[in-house]
Amino acid sequence: MNRLVFLAVFLFSGIPAAFAQSDQDCMMCHSNSGLSMKKQGRTVSLFVDESHVKGSVHSVFSCVTCHVGFSATEIPHAKNIQPVACQNCHPIEGFDKSIHGTLKNNMPLAGCSSCHGKHDIKPVNDAKSVVARSNVAGTCGECHREEHRQFTMSAHGNAVAGGSGKAPSCVDCHGSHTIESTAGKDPLALKMAEGKLCLKCHLNDP
Questions:
Q1: 112 CB contacts (<8 Å, ≥6 apart)?
Q2: Helix, strand, or coil here: 109?
């Protein structure tokens, strides 16, 4: 029997409709490391490591704070599962017009979880955060591999790796949530803008 169906029969038989509104109820199924589903021909894990959640910046919230629109007594819990709307709590002006916010198949090229993670998100000032100064280049490098290779060999990359708090990483020069595509823009104007950006740090220290 399909593992998902088996769990549904075992857990939901005779359970009232209000079931699975607490984190403990959700974890009765989602703590199973083998829990998965098929989506567009791919096997998608539905496992949630509770220790990651408890150690995250969102540990004070319940599962249903972010995961809304689900029916606990139905499998799957929703016919059309919608992505978590981080913007409800974190309104980021301009992201939808950025290169990362550009939609492909109705999804951003790189959504919030692509850079920040999911259930294990930590504060940006936490050394273990994937967007902490010492780690953000590696996070960007998950998609921008050649750029990451070049950065690690650069003076800036070596300074960041050495623990410098002043050396710039990716977001210091490129920005974070409002990065625009350079496609179709005047190359000369881009070069001039690049020079101005460098001089913000190197005006008196070339």
A1: 84, 86, 90
A2: coil
